[in-house]
Amino acid sequence: MPLFDVIGLGGEKVAVIIDIGEAYTKCGFASEVSPRHIIPSCVTRNINGKIFEEKISPSSVTNSTDNSLYGTLRDFIHHLYFRYLLVNPKERRVVLCESVLWPTKFRETLAKVLFYHFEVPSVLFAPSHLMSLFTLGISTGLVMECGYSETSVLPISFY
């Protein structure tokens, strides 16, 4: 990021974009044309000398408790902000590109982590299928998303 990245924006810093996937997470800034980092969607923890690797996956939410999911997401988002993006989370808005098929529990826990622990100013959950049409500038389309563990096809039409 340039040192004076807010001069042309009237004091408003660009938003952080996060796209959490089944295997990889893409993160970067709103003014950039590509993700700044693509990292594995997992957290490595050292507990009593043993190393555990926990996956960050919306599909594995049913197997975890609220506290373990909160702790895993907290560590993962901390890792994103302070190791890869190198920005203060209190100064930047967040855009989360999410699938419309994410469980509500995962979405709520992620919002709780961002608002309560990191104190971000705002969070926008943007449907990833809709975002692909925005880049093309069209209002209707059949979006096929090929992911790590599944492929989803959704018809999109908005006015």
From TrEMBL:
Pfam families registered for this protein in UniProt = Actin
Q: What is this protein called?
A: Uncharacterized protein
